[in-house]
User: Fold (apollo) hypothetical protein from Parnassius apollo.
Amino acid sequence: MSLISKWLISIILLIFFIDRGFCIKCWNCRSSYDPNCADPFDNTTIPVMECDEKLGLAHLPGTKSSMCRKIRQKVNGEWHYFRDCAYLGEAGIQGDERSCLMRTGTNNTIIEYCTCNSKDGCNSSSLISPVHIVIFTLSYISRFILNIFS
Assistant:
């Protein structure tokens, strides 16, 4: 393997691991304050925040957020949505982020709790991480350069 190819592979791996080293970013909103927080989700007025910048949980000191969450709650016939960082549990149900935990209660109460950690902003309907686009582009460029020098 040539020096150039080793160098390019090292850069690509470094970028990939730098992306994994930073905390996850999640949408942070409540539909009671911003109707765009509800589904269908419109993130034009909603901030995405780095979860390590949030204060931890007072009752669980030292606990850091590692996931995003979306809570959909129906109380007395009215739907409410919450999107935020999540501190405990696992992403999805048995690792499947497309699955959410659903609970029902008295007085027509329904709660759907979804968690994810696959990418920044995963607690929305869709978001493409710019870092993943950069990784793909650099991979393509490095392959192109390797073909030229081979």
Q: What stands out?
A: Residues 25-128 form a domain with the CD59 fold (CATH 2.10.60.10). The chain is about 25% helix and 25% strand.
